[in-house]
């Protein structure tokens, strides 16, 4: 879990693409998607909880080196907090069987890595900025193509990694053991 918490933190420190309104496009959600897909639901969500605990303690691990409790009170707090259930859902769907199925990886990454994160982030942003949900959604449409690209990268990395190095995919491999060989 610590390694994926570190991965998400490092991806937040890479140069971001600035957008109007000051919210940058970073690669951190790619790390969230990979944490869930590789570690499974519980350990993937645990990696993000660990990252948030470190951020809350003041470490500058989010985009632009931000950290501290204040980041969880801003307009983007819902997106960051949405990473926890997002990583959980990515892992739950992706690792539902062993060997991994491509369609499950695609479904889990899109539902958990994009839809759940937006479902958590948009209401908080709308509340913080005094917007309607539709207005908050319109503001965030600029991020959607980047999130789709990140999902594609996560899918392209997860499938070969599971074949080459299956050790971290314990949730899916245990399911195979308890339910018999995958068909």
Automatic annotation (TrEMBL):
It is found in: Cell membrane. The keyword Transport applies. Its main location: membrane. The chain crosses the membrane at residues 70-93, 105-125, 137-157. Keywords: Cell membrane, Membrane, Transmembrane, Transmembrane helix, Transport. It holds the Pfam family BioY. InterPro entries: BioY. It is a multi-pass membrane protein. Belongs to the BioY family. This is Biotin transporter. The lineage of its organism: Bacteria, Bacillati, Actinomycetota, Actinomycetes, Micrococcales.
């Amino acid at each position: 879990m610590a390694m994926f918490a570190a991965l998400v933190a490092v991806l937040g420190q890479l140069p971001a693409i600035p957008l109007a309104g000051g919210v940058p496009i970073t690669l951190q959600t790619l790390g969230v998607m990979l944490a869930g897909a590789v570690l499974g639901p519980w350990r993937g969500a645990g990696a993000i909880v660990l990252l948030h605990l470190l951020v809350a303690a003041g470490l500058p691990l989010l985009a632009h080196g931000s950290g501290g409790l204040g980041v969880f009170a801003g307009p983007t707090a819902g997106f960051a907090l949405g990473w926890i259930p997002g990583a959980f859902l990515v892992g739950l769907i992706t690792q539902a069987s062993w060997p991994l199925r491509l369609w499950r990886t695609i479904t889990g990454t899109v539902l958990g890595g994009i839809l759940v994160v937006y479902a958590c982030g948009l209401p908080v942003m709308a509340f913080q900025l005094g917007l309607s949900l539709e207005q908050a959604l319109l503001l965030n449409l600029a991020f959607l193509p980047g999130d789709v690209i990140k999902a594609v990268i996560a899918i392209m990395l997860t499938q070969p990694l599971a074949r080459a190095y299956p050790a971290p995919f314990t949730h899916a491999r245990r399911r195979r053991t308890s339910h018999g060989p995958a068909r």
